[in-house]
């Protein structure tokens, strides 16, 4: 019997409580993102390479990467890999990952799947993870190209997520439009704040952002009480 049934069950019964949590988190998430944005603007020296990397990718995407002749195999691979990563994290077995040059891809998962696997590519920046890990490794700490790559990879994530998030996406249809639109806005705003805070202050910065977000959320709830 597949171990995946346990996380699947937990995610199924917690689906709508999580949706309620995420929609009530939205105001606090926006406020926390604005605060970290102001911090970044006030400390551009520590973010210069990250922002340059993001800006360079934006230009390359507009002038080259978004053109039809470039195909979509890389973005498709990253999308399907994110599905696979969250499948492994929730104890599923991945039996096939297929990518084509311009007509999409697919991943075969044994164990039934769940909404977290389905929605993962629409909020989780998989391509950022290697550069975040590298930035914390001794031999790469402080290297400009790691910071630039983190900025470029998150810019890629934002652009690809914007293009891929629409009503025709099978992943979103399977999860349910209502749940997707309750979950995804806060998830993306929080992740953007985490990446900015990490780029500015490393792991400690990201933890501090989450702590401040939690405090802001608690304050909002106290107003309602």
Lay out the secondary structure.
Blueprint (H helix, E strand, L loop, with lengths): L4 H38 L5 H18 L7 H17 L3 E7 L5 E6 L4 H5 L8 H9 L7 H21 L5 H6 L1 H48 L1
Antiparallel strand pairs: 1-2
Helix pairs in contact: 1-8, 2-6, 5-6
Commentary on this structure:
With 225 residues, the protein is mainly α. It has a domain of 133 residues. The protein has a two-stranded antiparallel ribbon with strand order 1-2. Helix 1 crosses helix 8, helix 2 packs across helix 6 and helix 5 packs antiparallel against helix 6. The termini are far apart.
Q: What is the compact description of this entry?
A:
This protein has 225 residues and is mainly alpha-helical. It has helices at residues 5-42, 48-65, 73-89, 115-119, 128-136, 144-164, 170-175, 177-224, and strands at residues 93-99, 105-110.
């Amino acid at each position: 019997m597949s171990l995946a049934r346990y996380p699947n069950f937990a995610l199924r019964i917690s689906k709508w409580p999580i949706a309620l949590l995420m929609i009530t988190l939205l105001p606090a998430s926006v406020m926390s993102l604005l605060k970290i944005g102001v911090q970044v603007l006030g400390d551009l020296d520590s973010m210069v390479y990250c922002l340059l990397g993001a800006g360079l990718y934006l230009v390359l995407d507009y002038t080259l990467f978004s053109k039809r002749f470039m195909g979509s195999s890389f973005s498709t691979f990253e999308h399907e890999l994110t599905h696979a990563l969250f499948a492994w994290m929730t104890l599923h077995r991945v039996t096939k990952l297929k990518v084509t040059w311009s007509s999409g891809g697919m991943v075969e998962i044994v164990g039934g799947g769940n909404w977290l696997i389905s929605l993962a590519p629409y909020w989780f920046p998989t391509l950022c993870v290697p550069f975040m890990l590298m930035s914390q490794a001794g031999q790469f700490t402080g290297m400009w190209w790691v910071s630039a790559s983190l900025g470029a990879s998150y810019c890629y994530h934002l652009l690809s997520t914007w293009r891929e998030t629409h009503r025709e996406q099978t992943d979103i249809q399977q999860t349910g439009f209502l749940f997707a639109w309750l979950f995804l806005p806060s998830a993306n705003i929080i992740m953007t704040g985490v990446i900015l805070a990490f780029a500015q202050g490393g792991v400690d910065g990201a933890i501090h952002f989450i702590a401040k977000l939690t405090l802001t959320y608690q304050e909002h709830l106290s107003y309602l009480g």
